[in-house]
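Q&A log
Question type: sequence-to-structure
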Amino acid sequence: MNDPLSASLAATVQAARLSRELSVNALADRSGVSRAMIGKIERGEAQPTAVLLGRLSGALGLTLSELVARAEGGPDDLLRRAEDQPVWTDPATGYQRRAISPISDSPLELVEVELPPATEVSYPADAYIFKYQQIWVLEGSLHFQEGPVLHQLATGDCLQLGAPAPCTFINPSSDPTRYLVALVKSR
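Response status: OK
Response body:
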């Protein structure tokens, strides 16, 4: 793997699985990701996409931001400077996810996302089963498919998500879309 964050994601996924005393088979059953793919990710032979990381993080009881933050490492602190905020790029779509919030036990997480033009990223319902979420469009337009409902959002719009459902983030335009996701994990 080329970048250090991708390499540490491999070790982080494996460590999270082992700390929960899950076999590769059990994680595959929970996440819907094949045993072979989990093995490749944990050995650093495959760079996981946003969809795969979303499935794995949900099955591990973590948010995608927590998974990326653990891979990034660093001390618990109440301040996370912009230059210290890890940015992860989906190798399949170019989707970029910046973990803004300081690493802590707080139930609140802020994530900034940039979705390239004419791109979509989908997640299963179980990736959102343990959190509340709002999406605030900072720049551009976003179509958000939440189960059977399509929300068409423009700059400045904010959407509170409902009950967990399969969802797809869609940038229908020829310009990048930036949005903030605020997550609150339920306890």
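Response note: The chain has a mean pLDDT of 86.
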